[in-house]
Amino acid sequence: MTLSFFDQFMSPSYLGIPLITLALLLPWLLFPTPSSRWLNNRLLTLQGWFINRFTSQLFTPLNQGGHKWALALASLMLFLISLNMLGLLPYTFTPTTQLSMNMGFAVPLWLTTVLIGMRNQPTAALGHLLPEGTPTPLIPVLIIIETISLFIRPLALGVRLTANLTAGHLLIQLIATAAFVLLPLMPTVAILTATLLFLLTLLEIAVAMIQAYVFVLLLSLYLQENV
């Protein structure tokens, strides 16, 4: 019974073909395509308003060079939100519960921000490894600590997204199983458990959106240090 709780995190396959590819391609098919009309429908208007608000809030602290990343980070934000939200539906698979996939997002984007800083302003990029006014005996120790913290950043990005979504899915499944088992024995307790499950599902919807936003926000902060 314990192992069955983790079966939902196994990558499904059909005839030996991993279906995670289909899960990654599906969100792009759900996005409405822009039209050439002066007046769009409500969904397109809401989507455009959301993207404009998100990009303006995210890129206001950045200089003009960092605005080139607006399209990439906004697309990543919508993609992660779609994957996280679709994973809350019954009988679906959530690709963002896989640490390998999240690290595949985090490491290249983090490495790109570091390389941009090394190319555009190498002195300032290396200066982050040693705070100003550091006592001479502490210089080697602080350089090692700051270097380790720099390389931990992509790991923190991937683990944070994976851990939050995995914990939420496990908790939902545990409470749903408890409500199903308690229904014939103690209906009143089962109804209270189902109410708790409903509230937890609402919380997970918020977590799915917040974690996607935090992922992109931290990437923009890393970019802000290097442009």
Can you give a write-up of this model?
By secondary structure, the chain is an all-alpha fold. The protein has one domain (19-225). Helix content is 69%, strand content 2%. The chain has helices at 20-30, 42-59, 70-86, 99-120, 122-127, 139-182, 187-224, and strands at 13-14, 17-18. A hairpin with a 2-residue loop joins β1 (13-14) and β2. α3 (70-86) packs antiparallel against α7, α4 runs antiparallel to α6 (139-182) and α6 runs antiparallel to α7 (187-224). The N and C termini lie far apart (51 Å). The relative contact order is 0.13.
Shape: globular
Helical content class: 55-70%
> Structurally, how many domains make up the residues?
1
Beta-strand residue fraction: under 5%
Structural Rg: 22 Å
Number of DSSP-assigned strands: 2
Mean pLDDT equals: 82
Can you list the strand order of the major beta sheet? 1-2
Give the SSE order as H and E letters: EEHHHHHHH
The SS-based structural class is mainly alpha
The number of distinct helices, counting runs of at least 4 residues, comes to: 7
What kind of sheet is the major sheet? 2 strands, antiparallel
Low-confidence stretches: none
